[in-house]
Amino acid sequence: MQRHDNRSVDQLRPISFVTDIAPNASASVLVSFGNTKVICAVTIEEDVPRWMKMQKVEGGWLTAEYSMLPYSTLDRKRRDISSGKLDGRSSEIQRLIGRALRAAVDLSKIGQRTIWIDCDVLQADGGTRTASITGASVALAIALNKLVAAGKLSASPMKKLVSAISVGILEGTALLDLCYVEDKDAEVDMNLVMTDAGEFVEVQGSGEEAVFTEDQMSQLLALGKKGIAEITQLQREVIAAADQPKDADLQSLTEMFGSR
Ligand code: UDP
How do residues 52-65 score in pLDDT, each as one tens digit? Predict the structure, then answer.
């Protein structure tokens, strides 16, 4: 099948991670999957929600928020604040991001802290939820490593790296990492969230006015697993590089804005 950007059926879009783009966050990453770009920022607060204190729950909490910036879509998307409520899609996506990242970290070992994960879509071209999870996982690992380096934790409570990818069936063909033009016409749409150990965290799959067979589902899982393995490798490299000294430009930015 000829994909509109000439990728092979099992080929990911070009992926990049730019770290430290929001220096006031505990850690931040601008993740790109082709034209889909999401700012993922992690802020660690030295406090826990009231319900945790009341119920005397040990450890901390992790929660996520997701939004699409007004100019991230082809037609301007109104901010939720102007309609007075969070739209259903954003709410579903931020709960997915929270669940995925809570699988990555041992909350009983983060101390009395709250981890905020903010995912803001800068440019949307399909797969914004999967890019959010993938970028947030990198930012979370870096933020927790910084707590260890600062002597606030004895070891990183990160249990696994999580990453996510979309797969789908378009005109009968199983495809990896769908962009918007593919996603909007796909008969089957699936989002996979997996760990670096090859375990599943969440599988969301649906036939869009269509059905799919077990055989097709196996094809989609195989494509997804291939993509996740490649993404995991890139995530590891970015996290390892974040521990190295920064280059002069980023260093001066950090000095200008400070960092936590
Ligand atoms: N999209 C959009 N406006 C919206 C919602 C979605 O332009 O309000 C586009 C956007 O490119 C997005 C794609 O539709 O990435 C697919 O949306 P979906 O809800 O499937 O989520 P995603 O694939 O981004 O996780």
Answer: 878 888 889 999 99
